[in-house]
Structures are given as structure tokens and as C-alpha cells.
């Protein structure tokens, strides 16, 4: 299982578009699923942007605060997911806040949400999780999500203003993960190829590896940010989406390597030695697993909107998976 937290910065570097592109291109072996949690404390944009208001604003993250206080978080979490895979429930979205003032109602819910996300990969139907933390989500109450993630992916542009504003933010993030998480080696950069600085220069300047390069392509990015433009096979096979798929592959591999490195190792006496201390997940996974199984057998009230990657002509070839780039 993989939990990836995507974060941005000032100047709209493209964190939400990148997170949505990762959702639509995430490799899914048989029986596996992926969820995008739009967790930006400043408010979500996918409902009004990529989905063009086709899904009711009643769905989303803001419902989970009340559900948590009522002891019903797991059930509410799955009932708020919107299916972006044409009924297959393989690529799922938890829409973000519709009003930034709703963030205060989640102050005590971020921790259990992060626990739920961390445990979804261990269920009978495993789920990978992508979390869009926006510009401010790695600080404050929602920072626990980044601390528990396998990887934290800041999205930046290769311009001097973007690098200048990213440097102090990365320093603060690095310190927080070293102090409260499993280490700042979880940080890997996703670079939008705008500006004159190379991958090597960016990595050296920001003291972090560059995981992926995404083309600077405003036309393709607007499909994900605003729901505008071509959404058919041409879009899915574009360099922009192929770069997202390459980044997703790299994230899965790097997260697996990091989990192996952090895993407890047997000592000479046969005991397991503890790796770096990580926040402990809760023990409610039997409830989560039971709900996942039940959700596949019962009729569900969620709408099945056309996703940005599914608004294709009716003659789409049989077997062409919407939202999946080959």
C-alpha cells in the first residue's frame, strides 16, 4: 500500500492538477483501488473545476467532522466517495471543503483520517491513497496526514520565484517530519517544467530528490483544473498524462523502498528491533474491511459522474480503461 501526500505553495504551482492526474493514471493491479482525498484546508476545487459542478456539494470532506463526533467516521468516509471509474469503484475521490471556514470543524478529525488512510492498504480490498494537502495542509492540525504518509510530494515550478518561496517551506516541512514523523527522507519533488532551472539544479538547491517531471502544458492542465478542453484519448495519451503515470510508478517504487528501510529488523536474539517511531494507527480496521466488503454488495447512493478522463465519445474502443494511461 502507498499513501502519498501532495502539497503546493504560493503562485498556484499545480498541486491539485498533479494529484488528480496521479489518481487517473495510478497503476492498479487486479483487485486494487486508489482514493484521492482533497484535503486542502483552504477549500477544494475539483467539484467546481474538473467535475464542473456535476456532483452535489453535499459530498465531501466536510461531512467527516460530524461523523467522527458521532462515532461513524469509517461508514461516512466510504459513503462520501465519488466514483471516477465508470462504476468500477477503482478510482475514487473524496471531494474537498466547499468553504474554508469548514476546516475548523475537522481539527480533531485529521488524526483519525490519517489513521484510516494508513490502514486501507492492509484490507481484503487494498487501497492506495493520494492526499492533496494544498498550500497550508502540511502545517496545523492537518500536518498529521503528511507525517504518516509514505511520501510527501511538494509540487514546484522551475522558476526563481517558485524556488525562492519553496525553500523556507521545505525547511519547515523537513524539520517537522524529522521531529514528528518518520523522517524528512519522505520528501521528493514533483517539478513542473517551467523556467530555466534543470532537474539537477532544483534538486541540489532544495536538497531533495526530484521524483517526477511534468510538462508545463496549460491546455492539458486546464482539463484537470477547470474541466475545459479535450478529455478523450488524445488527452489520456498526452505527454502530460504520460508524465503523471511515470511519476506514479516512481512514487510506488520509492514508497516501497522506504517502507522496507523503516521496517523492524530481527536482532541477533531473534527479536524485532524497532525502526524510526511512527504514529500508531487505530485498531478499527476490521470495521473498515467489513464496510468495504458490504459496499461492493449493496446499492449505493453516490452519483457516477463523468470524470475528466471519461468524457469521451461513445465509440471508445472496448477495453479502453478510462483514466488509465498506458
Envelope shape: globular
Q: Helical content, roughly?
A: 25-40%
Strand order of the largest sheet: 3-4-2-5-1-6-7-8
Computed CA radius of gyration, to the nearest angstrom = 19 Å
Short description:
With 326 residues, the protein is of the alpha/beta class.
Task: Write the SSE topology.
Layout: E1 3-7, H1 15-25, E2 33-38, H2 64-69, H3 73-79, E3 82-83, E4 91-94, H4 110-119, E5 127-134, H5 143-148, E6 151-157, H6 160-180, E7 189-193, H7 199-206, E8 210-215, H8 218-225, H9 233-236, H10 239-262, E9 265-266, E10 272-273, H11 285-297
List keywords for this structure.
globular, disordered C terminus, 11 helices, eight-stranded mixed β-sheet, 10 strands, 326 residues, alpha/beta, single chain
Amino acid at each position: 500500500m502507498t499513501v502519498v501526500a501532495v502539497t503546493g505553495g504560493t503562485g498556484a504551482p499545480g498541486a491539485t492538477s498533479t494529484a488528480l492526474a496521479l489518481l487517473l493514471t495510478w497503476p492498479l493491479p487486479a483487485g486494487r483501488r486508489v482514493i484521492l482525498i482533497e484535503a486542502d484546508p483552504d477549500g477544494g476545487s475539483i467539484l467546481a473545476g474538473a467535475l464542473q459542478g456535476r456532483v452535489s456539494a453535499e459530498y465531501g470532506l466536510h461531512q467527516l467532522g460530524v461523523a467522527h463526533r458521532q462515532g461513524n467516521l469509517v461508514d461516512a468516509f466510504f459513503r462520501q466517495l465519488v466514483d471516477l471509474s465508470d462504476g468500477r469503484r477503482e478510482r475514487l475521490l473524496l471531494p474537498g471543503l466547499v468553504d474554508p471556514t469548514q476546516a475548523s470543524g475537522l481539527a480533531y478529525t485529521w488524526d483519525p483520517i490519517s489513521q484510516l488512510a494508513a490502514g486501507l492498504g492492509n484490507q481484503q480490498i487494498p487501497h492506495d491513497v493520494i492526499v492533496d494537502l494544498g498550500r497550508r495542509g502540511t502545517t496545523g492540525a492537518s500536518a498529521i496526514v503528511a507525517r504518516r504518509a509514505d511520501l510527501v510530494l511538494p509540487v514546484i515550478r522551475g522558476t526563481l520565484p517558485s524556488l525562492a518561496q519553496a525553500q523556507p517551506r521545505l525547511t519547515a516541512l523537513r524539520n517537522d517530519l524529522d521531529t514528528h514523523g518518520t523522517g524528512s527522507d519522505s520528501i521528493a519533488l514533483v517539478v513542473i517544467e517551467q523556467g530555466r532551472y534543470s532537474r539537477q539544479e532544483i534538486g541540489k538547491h532544495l536538497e531533495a530528490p526530484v521524483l517526477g517531471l511534468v510538462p508545463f502544458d496549460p491546455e492539458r492542465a486546464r482539463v484537470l483544473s477547470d474541466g475545459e478542453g479535450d478529455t478523450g484519448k488524445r488527452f489520456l495519451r498526452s505527454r502530460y498524462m504520460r508524465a503523471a503515470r511515470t511519476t506514479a510508478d516512481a512514487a510506488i517504487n520509492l514508497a516501497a523502498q522506504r517502507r522496507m528501510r523503516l521496517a523492524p529488523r530481527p536482532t541477533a536474539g531473534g527479536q524485532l528491533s524497532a525502526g524510526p517511531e511512527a504514529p500508531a494507527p487505530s485498531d478499527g480496521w476490521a470495521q473498515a474491511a467489513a464496510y468495504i466488503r458490504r459496499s461492493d454488495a449493496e446499492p449505493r447512493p453516490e452519483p457516477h459522474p463523468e470524470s475528466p478522463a471519461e468524457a469521451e465519445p461513445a465509440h471508445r474502443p472496448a477495453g479502453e480503461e478510462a483514466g488509465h494511461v498506458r
